[in-house]
Amino acid sequence: MIEFANKLEDYRNQLSHLDNKIIELLSQRALISKEIGILKTNNKIEIYQNDFWEKSQLIRSKTIESTSLNGAISNQIFDLIHQQSLLIQEDILKQKNA
Fold it and tell me: Are 92 and 45 in contact (CB under 8 A)?
């Protein structure tokens, strides 16, 4: 039973480590989204670009299919990540227009 508990704790520690990496990557992504927002705003480009988003979704879906991840859940996660990027960029646009 001790071996089980030790293994379980080890796996949970690995998950926590990976969660921290995911948070770090999302933070880095947010910084890039901010830079994109500044670039779009300065060049009077619309924040939401449907063609790019649809192309990205298609590529990402194909990548997800080659893994053991659930496609629907993974796509929901990326939809939320995209929404966060749009909020960041919209905030930049609001600040410039204020």
Answer: no
pLDDT digit string (tens) for 31-61?
999 999 999 999 999 999 999 999 999 999 9
pTM above 0.85, yes or no: yes
Which residue stretches of the chain are H helix?
2-42, 50-65, 71-97
Give CA–CA dist 88/35, Å, rounded. Answer: 10
Residue pair 56/75 in contact (Cβ under 8 Å)? The answer is: no
CA dihedral 23, 28, 32, 35 (to 10 degrees): 110
H/E stretch holding 70 reads: none
User: What is the CATH number assigned to the segment(s) 2-97?
Assistant: 1.20.59.10
Structural contact between residues 37 and 89, judged by C-beta atoms closer than 8 angstroms: yes
